Amino acid sequence: MKYIRVILFCCIGFLMFSCEDDEKQRQAEAAKAQKVNDSILKIISSNWKFDVPAVTSKVSQRIENWNEWQQFKNEFAQNPTGTLGAYRQKVKTLVNKAEQLKNNIPPFFDKPQVRSRIGVLITKVKSLYTYININPIPEKKVMGLLNEVSGDITSFQNQLDELVRISEVPKEIGEEEMLRALDTVRRANPDFKAQPENTSPAPAAPASRQPFNRQNP
Questions:
Q1: Overall pTM surpassing 0.90 (yes/no)
Q2: Taking a C-beta distance cutoff of 8 angstroms, is the pair 117, 160 a contact?
């Protein structure tokens, strides 16, 4: 019985020392990760700058009531200060703002190509949120995504400008009415596909063969 107690005491002591060693190792790893994140925080803070040009006046007039887009851009323009947690909260807010871009799109810009670019922005911002919440933060991934999102915003605005310019190109008589009619049909039936006009002439009907009457001499 005495030996059993000694063995149990030794086992308990070994487990206690082992747990202390594991805790010290975890604390050391956490301190190391925090040190890395602090250095990355300085890099992110100095590079949280988005050189996005202003939209043209014609585009601005058409999106002035699109509050979701204005809020999204304003969130990106504001640089969080303080801790890494502030940047993580900022990106979380950006994810919510990006998803709201699909709402209340001005009818003039509610086109497949515009929604496609919104989808790209949402995907990039969500990726940024994923990487900025990793410990330690993958610096290159985060910085790369920041640059990509900035470029995607510029491309998105260029797409809006292109749609305005295309709308101002003179159309042939009757073409504009036809496009409006097609757009109305598409909105009513998303599966509708316009059929191409068949301009090739119809094949000629074969000439009827006259019966051959053999004349008797």
A1: no
A2: no
